[in-house]
Every structure is written in structure tokens, then in C-alpha cells.
Amino acid sequence: MKFSVFQVSRKGGRQLNEDRMGYSYTRSSGILLLADGMGGHPEGEVAAQLALQAMSALYQKQANPVIEDVTAFLTAAVLAAHRQIIKYAIEKGMLDTPRTTVVAALVQNGMVSWVHCGDSRLYLVRKGQLVVRTRDHSYLEQPPKGHTPTRLAEQANRNILFTCLGSPAKPQFDIAGPVALLQGDKLMLCSDGLWGTLSDDEIVHELGAGVVGDVVPAMVEMALERAGATSDNVTAIALEWETPDAFADTTHDEATEKLEDAGFISTMQSGGMDADDDELDDAAIERSIAEINEAIRRSAAKRR
Amino acid sequence: MSKVKPAALPPDTMIGGYRIIRKVAAGGFGVVYLALDSDGQQIAVKEYLPASLASRSPGELAPQVPAEKLSLYRLGLKSFFEEGRALAQISHPSVVSVMNFFRENETVYMVMNYLEGAALQDFIIIARDQKLPKVFRESTIRSLFDEILRGLRIVHQHKMLHLDIKPANIFITDDNKSVLIDFGAAREVLSKEGNFIRPMYTPGFAAPEMYRRDSSMGPWTDIYAIGACMYACMQGYPPNEAPQRLEKDRIATALTRLRGIYSDNLIEVVEWCMALDPLSRPQSVFALQKELSREGERRYTKLSVAEKVRLQFDTMVTDSKKSGKALASSVVKPK
Lengths: 304, 335
Known about the structure:
The complex is a heterodimer. In chain A, 32% of the residues lie in helices and 25% in strands. Chain A is an alpha+beta fold. The two termini of chain A are 32 Å apart. The longest helix of chain B is centred in the N-terminal third of the chain and has 20 residues, at 70-89. The chains are: A alpha+beta, B alpha+beta.
């Protein structure tokens, strides 16, 4: 499995950045997470953090190295996150509970599945075209039956969600996928700080315009600039699927193959993807040295 | 196990076609030698020889590793490879470059370009001993970190973090270039627990998330260290450790004292980099570079009389609280 990931979170004009993001992966599976702690309730940033921790902890427990039952996992992860927040609020004797949105994408076996609750979104873009994006749990995007929002009401209602994690009511969430990924597909999770300022067309266009390491920070910068001093926090985490060409016979996972079955890596600690093969025998040492010297030669060649 | 450090290889020993001139440094990971290659060019050779896991008697070539330490030794070897792999991919004047990697004497060696000069740490100590209001000139700080950030940006582009940026790991060469060195600590694995690889950290320069196991490190973690290095260049001594700051944060007060000496913009940049909340820092080197290179007239806001009095009062309080312990930040005298 090979992919590149880029994540960025920028504080807008708000006092606090309540957005949280992260990712975790094993040798043959990966999960991207993003949560946007809600204002109007206490400690949104804690809710967001707890949600991510709970979900990634469950992931790390169950991904051996893939998740067996994706739907069951995504359901359990969201509910675990919800429970963690409620537990935190009870332990602290809080009058009101912290709340957060969440969106998570699980990538394995060349497929992506996702879950979301609230208005943090997932975009899947292929060759510059939108394949799919999540529908927010807001009155705007999922109006009650028989209700047609007027333009003004749309504006007013954008931020009003009918579900989230941490509220006393059981969260509503949607699970979707699996969708097979093709080489070059881009997957982005983002907070409303991004999509609230940039249109879908812009987001899709920008995502298609280059590698995630370039286009994502550019988009975030654009959103911040456009929203000006009162900008919401803008957070995005994006993945580009780099599976080898389907015609080549090497379909093995180049980037994560060195991870042991039980090994996983969490949130860009480093490029050191070979976290664990304890059997560093003579052959492995020779291989490592050869690899490093090969890399040195390549870099030296580039320099010229 | 004996506390005797493993013996360095003697001058004129030939390893991998290089001739050792002398030992230049030794750390927990091993030994660095100045050596000559077959063309007579000076190079640096880093030998993997962790003092806590291996021993070597004078005159011996191969280190001895007790059986019970073998697995840790091998684990450390992996982090040595990790450093090699990291450096091999990067080719930038502000990042130390690795030229060769080889195995001999039952251990491994990394050949790097040999830098002549001194660590930023040495310059800070010399500068602060002159007891001038400014440790370094603002323009010096700006251009030095501009160079380092260019290198760090490339490091991050390769999805790697340095994780041990500090004045001792910023090298200033005799021809006035600054170079980021020692990528080994970033992947220090000798305290391994489960599947986590816990990096080591240097107090004062390590971001708060380095102390927590569950937390997410990212470019912002190195950026915290950059802010701390800039702080050290302005104050002449390192900032308080992150855990201490979480209890009582004196950084803002310490920086206030520098107002009028350094520009408001520089002080703000340092404060931004050193925010305790990772998300409140510049999230990328690019964002920091942009702010640091902002052109325009520098503004200097002098302290008002009231502020000076307040600071003085603060110092008195601090002094009485900390009597006998380390000197309060405002009156630290080196050495």
C-alpha cells in the first residue's frame, strides 16, 4: 500500500483552534481522522481530541493488519468516541457536554470506507472530478421533509447541526463505501472552515491541480485569506493514492510493506515506516546499507 | 556493566578505505572521527558504538556486545540506519549530507561531509559572556534561521522530523553557513515500549507533545524547537522546559523584557513558535518563513515605565520564591 498524506490545521480569527486531525496506519491499512470541536458548548477541543484518541485506539487494537469488518468497526469507533466524551463530561461534573463533529476514512485492500457525523466533510476526487462527498448533518444539507430552505435561511442554517458526538442524544452518523481507489485519487477530510469559504467546485479543482503536499496548504491559505480576520479555523488532511500502475505486476505495498503484522504508525512521526522487524539479521543489515547507498547515489545524481 | 567508554579507533586506522586522523566527538550513539578519503579530502565518519550496549578495549577493532544486550544493540542499529536513510534522501546545503555507508569491524559507519566551525551553542556562550543587551544582532538571527528553515523545510518535505533541534545541533561553518546536524536522536529507540518509538528530548527545546506519549508530533514540533533556539539566541540561555511552562509560563514575561531590544515582529514570531498548543504554532515551515521574511520597517515598542515597574516587581517575587535555586530568568549570569 502506498500513499502520501498531508495534514494542516490553521487557526483563523478564533481564540482557540478546536479542530483536531491525525492518521494512523499499519502495513496494509490506514485511517484518517478529523474532528471539529463545537463552539457554544464547553471544551470543544477536548471533545475533538477525545474522539480522535478513542477512534485511533480502537483502530490500533483491531487493525491486525486490516480491519475485518469495516462497517462494524466504523460504527463501534464513532460510538466509542461519543461515550468517551460523555464519560469525560460526567467525570468532570460538567453541566453541559463538550461536542464535536467527526469524519474518518478507512483505507485498506485498495478501497476506502468512511463515516461522518456533523459537518466535517470527506471529498473524493478522481482526475479532477468529484467522485463523492459527504452530506452534512445540517438542516441545510438534509432538510426535514417538505421543507425548502430559502436563500436567507440557508445562510443562517449552515452551522446548525442536528447531530454530533457528545450531545445527550445518541449520535446519528452515516457510513459509506467501500469505493475502490485508483492511482492518483485524492481523498480529503476537512472542517467547515475550508468548505464554508471555498465552493465545492474550487475544492475539487484545487485538489486536482497537484500533489497534496502543495495543493492542500494552498487551499487552506486561500480559505484563510478569503475569510479574513474572522476566519474559522481551517483544517484539512488529504491522502493521495499511489498504488502502482495496475498493469505492472508489482501490486505489493511498497511503502508499508516493512511494517510487521502488529506494527502501526500513528500521525506523521517520521518517514521511518519500517517500524518493526526485530529480526535485523545480517542480510537485513546488508540490505539496509545497500538501500542507503542507493539513496545517496540518487541524491548525488540529482544534485548535478 | 563497566562504565568505561568504548575505546575510539586510534589515528591511522583504515576503515572502509578511509584513514582516521582523530576522534572529534563521542556521544551515546558512538564516535565521530575526522578522516581522509583516498583523494586526501577531509570527511567525517560516524561509527555506531552505543556506549551503554557495547564495549571495546583499546587496540581492538570490533566492539563486544553482551548477549543480553544484543537485541537492543540491533534496535539501536536500526535507528542509525534510519538516520542514514533520512540524510541520504536530502541534498541541501543547510542539512548535513551523508556520502557513504558501510559495514566493517562488525559495526556500521556513516561517512559525512566534514564541517569546520562550531556549534551555535558555542557562539551563544561566547556572545552572552560579553554581557551586552543583545546576545546576537537581529539581522544575524534572521539570516541564520532563514538558512536553517530552508533546510528544515526540505526535511519535512521528505516526511521526516528532526525532533532534536537545539543550538548544539546547529553548526556554523567557518565560511559562515549554518547546517542542521545530528538526525540520530530523532530516531532514538533505546527506550522502546510496545510498538511506540519514543524519541529522546532535550529540555527547553522539546515541545510539550514530546513529553506525552499519545500526542501527535508534526512539523510544529520542530518549529517549537526553532522558536526555542531563537529565544536562546536572544536571551543567551535556553527557555524553561515545557512541563515547567505548563505549570507557570514565564516565556511571555521573559520576552517582554526584550522589547525595544529586538523588534516586535521577531518577539512575536518566537512567541508564536513556542505556543504550548501545537495547533497554535506555525503549522508549517513555510508559514514561519513567510512571517520571518516579512519586509518592512521593524517596529520596536519600548517598555513603558509602568511595565518596567511591573516586571521588576515580578522579578522580586520570583527571586524570593526561588531563593537558593536557579536564578530567576531576568538575572541569569552564565557560568
